[in-house]
Design a protein that fits this description.
Elements lengths: L6 E6 L3 H12 L4 E4 L6 H6 L1 H20 L13 H25 L2 E4 L3 E5 L2 E4 L4 E9 L3 E3 L25 E5 L3 H12 L3 E5 L11 H13 L3 E3 L6 E4 L5 E4 L6 E3 L1 E4 L3 E3 L32 E3 L10 H16 L13 E3 L5 E5 L2 H8 L2 E8 L2 H5 L6 E8 L5 E7 L3 H13 L4 H6 L16
Helix pairs in contact: 1-7, 3-4, 3-5
The protein binds NADPH dihydro-nicotinamide-adenine-dinucleotide phosphate (NDP).
Length: 449
């Protein structure tokens, strides 16, 4: 325990990265405090991955119930109630908020439910006015939705508000074609809303393998999602009848009951006082750090979305853990950013790890691509025409599998295991040598010839 400072470590932001860092540092013997201006758990738990996944589960029942008839089930009087789903999800968020708070307490991390700002290299001020000193400060405040500027933006919502909608919108316009846009397009489409996705470019899910993106576009269009490409929103006007008129350039305006903006997230560094410690922000407002998460100020570190490296929860957690081991555990560690698996919980979901076909061709030139384009058994039985698509990208010279890309039911669950093989540098021959697990969708991974 330090004599000179109030704490060995003061963490700003009790999200995934901040909570992990504080409890590990405390385990290494540091005296730790954490400040959080909203709720303990951060974006992932409070207004991101977790409640989103629950909405995906909730909305997916529409498909399951429809298919149930093919399996002999009669479901009478089928109805959906948004308020029940919303409130159950929000109750689960309350439970997790309490669980995360309990984690801090059981790890002897003092927590302040107040905003903290940096006043110097070793000092912070809480919103209530209390001044605190710390040997090390960790900034883990995450990111915040970007709101493009257009007249009527005040009538729109972001992923922060979407979990609290007072009622299910009959018609929703979603701006953007990234993770959040396509996940919520899937949720609202499954729940029976009219969904229009408008995007400034003609591409969805930039960064994912092109074949999968094409497949998702085809399937979601067939499911009734309307896309308007090269058409960013120009204005949103509230009509006398309460509906929203969304103008999107040359195309006809769209009438909607809600407009969700999902155009990326930027580091939440505004008003944090970083300049008081001599830290200059990067072009996107991010905090520049070295491989050990250290900023230009030697006593201040940053992890997670606020550094704008990879905006994914498991990455922030790893960064927070590595920081705590490095600074308080006498075990300097950096995070390995190669082969990070990721998924989009669209309907159907898609997932990928390693290089896409395009990236592999640029990097290696000579690549072999294996695909399996199949109709999952459960779709065949239920009369669904939707097909899954699995793809292996292989270095033709070494036979090493450089990337695995999947779209279809349960793709994220299947990909996590395949990611181990890619991370381990296994070859296509290793995949081929593995006996298929039959009948499953995952067996396609070892049957591609
Ligand atoms: P994304 O970066 O995924 O997508 C942003 C979308 O908005 C793109 O279609 C982009 O178009 C468009 N866009 C960007 N800026 C503007 C602008 N100024 N005006 C109009 N359109 C614009 O962001 P999201 O908000 O969907 O998600 C934020 C981050 O959160 C993700 O990057 C991801 O890291 C994380 N996340 C992860 C999830 C998961 O792991 N399943 C789920 C949800 C979020 P263009 O392609 O033309 O640039």
């Amino acid at each position: 325990m330090t004599d000179t400072y109030d704490y060995d470590l003061f963490v700003i932001g009790a999200g995934s990265g901040g909570v992990r860092a504080s409890r590990i540092a405390s385990g290494h013997g540091a005296k730790v405090a954490i400040a959080e201006e909203y709720r303990v758990g951060g974006t992932c738990v409070i207004r991101g991955c977790v409640p989103k996944k629950l909405l995906v589960y909730g909305s997916h029942f529409a498909e399951e119930l429809q298919d149930a008839a093919h399996y002999g089930w009669t479901v009478e009087g089928m109805r959906f109630d948004w308020n029940t789903l919303r409130d159950t999800v929000l109750r689960d968020v309350d439970r997790l908020n309490a669980a995360y708070t309990q984690t801090l307490e059981s790890n002897r991390v003092e927590h302040f439910l107040e905003r903290a700002t940096i006043t110097g290299p070793n000092s912070v001020r809480l919103a209530g006015g209390r001044e605190i000193t710390a040997k090390v400060i960790l900034v883990a405040v995450g990111a915040w939705p970007v709101k493009p500027e257009f007249p009527g933006m005040e009538h729109c919502i972001t992923s922060n508000e979407v979990f609290h909608l007072p009622e299910l919108p009959r018609r929703i316009v979603i701006q953007g074609a990234g993770y959040i846009a396509l996940e919520f397009a899937g949720i609202f489409n499954a729940l029976g809303c009219e969904v229009t996705v408008v995007n400034r470019s003609d591409q969805i899910l930039r960064g994912y393998d092109e074949s999968l993106r094409d497949r998702l576009l085809q399937i979601t269009m067939a499911r009734g999602i309307v896309y308007r490409f090269n058409c960013p929103i120009q204005s949103v006007e509230k009509q006398a009848n309460g509906s929203l008129k969304v103008s999107i350039g040359k195309a006809d305006p769209i009438e909607a009951d809600a407009v969700l903006i999902a155009t990326g997230r930027k580091p939440k560094t505004e008003g944090l006082g970083l300049e008081n410690a001599g830290i200059t922000l990067g072009a996107k407002g991010e905090i520049p750090v070295d491989a050990y998460n250290r900023t230009a100020c030697p006593s201040i570190y940053a992890v997670g979305d606020v550094t704008d490296r990879v905006q994914l929860t498991p990455v922030a957690i790893r960064e927070g853990h590595a920081f705590a081991d490095t600074v308080f555990g006498n075990n300097p560690r950096t995070v390995d950013y190669t082969c990070i698996p990721s998924a989009v919980f669209s309907q159907p979901p898609l997932a990928g790890v390693g290089l896409t076909e395009g990236q592999a061709r640029n990097a290696y030139g000579n690549v072999k691509v294996y695909t399996s384009d199949f109709r999952p058994m459960k779709n065949v039985f239920a009369g669904r025409m939707e097909r899954g698509l699995y793809k292996l990208v292989v270095d033709a010279n070494t036979d090493r599998v450089l990337g695995v890309h999947l779209i279809g039911p349960e793709a994220p669950e299947i990909l996590q295991a395949a990611a181990i093989a890619v991370k381990a540098g296994l070859t296509k021959a290793d995949f081929d040598a593995t006996v298929a697990l039959h009948p499953s969708m995952a067996e396609e991974l070892v049957l591609m010839r």
